[in-house]
Structures are given as C-alpha cells and as structure tokens.
Specification:
Blueprint: E1 2-8, E2 13-21, E3 24-34, E4 41-47, E5 52-57, H1 62-73, E6 89-94, E7 105-106, H2 109-117, H3 126-139, E8 145-149, H4 159-162, H5 168-174, H6 183-199, E9 206-212, E10 216-222, E11 225-229, H7 251-260, H8 264-273, H9 276-281, H10 287-295, H11 299-322, E12 328-332, H12 333-338, H13 340-347, H14 359-363, E13 371-372, E14 381-384, H15 389-401
Parallel strand pairs: 1-6, 6-8, 9-12, 12-14
Antiparallel strand pairs: 1-2, 2-3, 3-4, 4-5, 7-8, 9-10, 10-11, 13-14
Helix pairs in contact: 6-15, 10-11, 11-13
This protein binds adenosine-5'-diphosphate (ADP).
C-alpha cells in the first residue's frame, strides 16, 4: 500500500510517500515546501537513497504547494511513481477535531462537513488542511483520504486542566474548553523518549515535550498520556509563536478596539497573523531571519527571541510542577531540533529545578537522531528528538484503509 502523507502547516507543507509492505514500512520520497506565503519559497524533494531536487521561487498558497508536490512525485527524473492514482490513500494532518473527533477517520463527505464547521477554530491551518483534502479528492476521486487530528492525543486531559474558569454553561452549551494541538508530534516524540529512556534504564513517566516550530506548544505527558498542554480552544493560546500572540490578558482586546476602532475579526487576524515574534521584531515570522537581524544589532529582534525563550521556560516550570518533577524534557520542531542558540536561551538557568543543560553537548548534537544534551548531574534528561508526525499519520491511515 502506498500512502501519501500531507502535513500542511501555516507556512509549510511537508509530505512523505510511504510504502507499507509485509508488515513494515519504507519512505519512497519526502519533501517540504517552506516559506509558503513568504518570499523566497523553497521546494525540497528527496528520493530515499537518491536524488534531491530543489526548486526556489514564490509559492503563494497551499494549493500551489500541493501541485508542486504532485509534480515532484511524478517527475520524469526525480519522481517515484508514474501517476498520482498509484497512491492508495492520502493521510492528512487535520488541525482541529473539536469534540467531533477523538480518533482518526476516513474523510467522507459528512466528516469533511464537520471539519469545515471547525474551520473557525483553526483559522491559520484548517483552510490549508481542507484545501489539500479537496485537491486530493478532485484529482483522485477513488482514493480514500484519512484525517488524523492534532487534538486527539490531548483527549486524555482531565477536566481540571482543560476547563476554562468561565461560566460553566459555556462548556456545557458550546464545548468551550482547552483542546490542545500538535498532538501527533507530542505523541511521536513522547513515545520515542519513553523508548530511549527505558532503554537507558532511566525514569520516563514524567515528560515535558516542547514542539517549537512556526507554531509552538508544550505538553505534560504522564505515563504516556497528556495531562496538560499549552495550546487551548484554538492554537492561539500559550507560547509566543511565529505570528501568534499566545497568552495575553483578554481585556487587551477591548482596549485595542476602543483605541483603534478595529473590529473583533481584525483583532483576531492581528493576534493570529501579525503578532508573536513577527509582531515584536517587525522583521519576520521565521526564526532564522530574526536571529540574523538580532545578530546584526536589531534590538526588537533580540527582544522577540528573548520573549519566546522566556515563555517556553515558564511553561517548563509550570509543567514541572504539574508533573511533580520531570524525568525528561524533549525538544522538537524546526526550532527545537535545529536552533542551538534558542535551546541555550531556553535551557540555561533551570538548574534550580534540577534541569542542567550541557552547552557543549548542545552545540555538537547530531541532527536526525535522539540526542541527549543534559549534563551528567542533571536530574532531568534533556533530549532533542526529530519529530515524525508523518509516520504517525501514515500508520493511522494504513490502519484505517487496510
Ligand atoms: P511549522 O510549524 O510551520 O511546521 P517548523 O517546525 O518547520 O514549522 O519550524 C519552522 C521554524 O523553524 C521557522 O521559524 C524556522 O526559522 C525555524 N528553523 C528551522 N531551521 C532552523 C535553524 N537551523 N535555526 C533556527 N531556526 C530554524
């Protein structure tokens, strides 16, 4: 069975083509379309054990990005299949399952309608996710589409953690509560961390997983199950992100409306798309651009990086308390896996909690593998683990369609 996994993020589209055969899987090709909607987009297509194709230029939106992916997969020189209908199933990352979906499903017309209703809960990602689903349905009418929800792994949270301190009817009538996101990533890296720590004879029951990318979230994972997470009803809550504000005092919204005359949709657009490190730095939502600017003496860029790190640090503290101590902290996502400097900012000065970071190990951490960056004396292991949301999605899709 050949499964194409499509993971449409707010500024990126990641894809992997999996082959499931005789009880095992292999990746035929994978790639990324980066900086979608930002200038200088880059498509990187890699054939497993073979050629690598890079196409630069501007990619306006996710529809465009998907056509580039299909083109690369069927390319005469770099392709791995002769036609798109060779794909047995598409596995889609879908941002928000709300209380409609606590497990993966086949995206029938009825399920797509339910997803559409949830678009308002994820205005940055849901349109991209559903555009991918629709394009697949149009281009390959007979190929099933599976939806794997970012919220599902967090469904184990208890009411104490997921309720907001609002009038209870808002939960009872409208299901307003914390849902959490990046579930497939938190699920994958926590499982990998447990495997690694168990193998090393270390404790693994209290983990803090930090997914730091364009969107960022933390999760507290006890005995393999989420007990709390930083994103909420929508992905807007929690950390400061590429373009999202994360936690703010809700009274600020009314104050901005009074001061600027903007309406609530405009404010939400600002909170989702013009805030976070982009809003603070005024430079970009991309951490590489902001790091370059900070290196060149841009004070607002420096402030954005410092604020981002400080908030991650505060959540680590909060979840250390929620878990009554942490056996492991896991860093993943584009920033967590790659940014040596951001890891230093976040993890320096946590020794009072028994979390002791090793600068040298951090600097020399090998990419693409589980890597320990804590000092030997650290009570808490600190692990850099490359996430693999695509593998989780492929397995779920395989199970649904086999
Ligand atoms: P998304 O949430 O869109 O899937 P990713 O997990 O791909 O995001 O992370 C994207 C972020 O990771 C960008 O802000 C990018 O700048 C950052 N990033 C990627 N590589 C590096 C690096 N080597 N150094 C610093 N930041 C990086």
């Amino acid at each position: 069975m050949t499964i194409l996994v499509l993971n449409a993020g707010s500024s990126s589209l990641k894809y992997q083509l999996f082959k499931f055969e005789n009880g095992s899987h292999s990746v035929l090709a994978k790639g990324t379309v980066e900086r979608i909607g930002i200038k200088n987009s880059l498509v990187t297509h890699e054939v497993t054990g073979g050629a690598r194709l890079e196409i630069s230029g501007d990619v306006a939106g996710h529809n465009d990005a998907l056509k580039k992916v299909f083109g690369a997969l069927t390319d005469k020189e770099y392709g791995v299949i002769s036609k798109i209908s060779d794909i047995s199933a598409f596995g889609h990352r879908i941002l928000h399952g709300a209380e409609d979906f606590d497990a993966s499903v086949i995206l029938t017309g009825e399920n797509i309608e339910k997803c559409k209703k949830n678009t308002e809960l994820g205005p940055l990602h849901m349109p991209a996710n559903l555009a991918c689903v629709n394009a697949c349905r149009e281009l390959c009418k007979d190929t099933p589409n599976a939806g794997v929800f970012d919220t599902a792994f967090h469904s184990t949270m208890g009411k104490t953690a997921y309720m907001y301190a609002l009038p209870y009817e808002y939960y009872a009538d409208y299901k307003i509560r914390k849902y959490g996101f990046h579930g497939t990533s938190h699920r994958y890296v926590s499982a990998e961390a447990i495997k690694y720590l168990d193998g090393a004879g270390a404790r693994s029951s209290r983990l803090i997983t930090c997914h730091l990318g364009n969107g960022s979230s933390l999760a507290a994972v006890k005995d393999g199950k989420v007990i709390d997470t930083s994103m909420g009803f929508t992905p807007l809550e929690g950390l400061a992100m590429g373009t999202r504000s994360g936690d703010i005092d809700p009274a600020v919204i009314e104050f901005i409306i009074r001061k600027t005359g903007k309406n609530i949709s405009e404010i939400l657009e600002i909170l989702n798309k013009k805030s976070g490190v982009l809003g603070i730095s005024g430079v970009s939502s991309d951490f590489r651009d902001i790091s370059d600017a900070a290196g060149g003496g841009n004070e607002r860029a420096e402030l954005a990086l410092a604020m981002f790190a400080y908030r991650v640090k505060k959540y680590i503290g909060a979840y250390t308390a929620a878990l009554n101590g942490a056996d492991g902290i896991v860093l993943t996502g584009g920033i967590g896996e790659n940014s040596v400097k951001m890891r230093t900012r976040i993890l320096t000065g946590l020794d009072g909690l028994g979390i002791i970071f090793d600068e040298e190990k951090n600097r020399t951490a090998k990419r693409g593998t589980v890597f320990e960056i804590n000092a030997d004396a650290s009570r808490t292991k600190i692990l850099v683990i490359p996430t693999n949301e695509e593998l989780v999605i492929a397995r779920e899709t395989f199970e649904l369609v086999k």
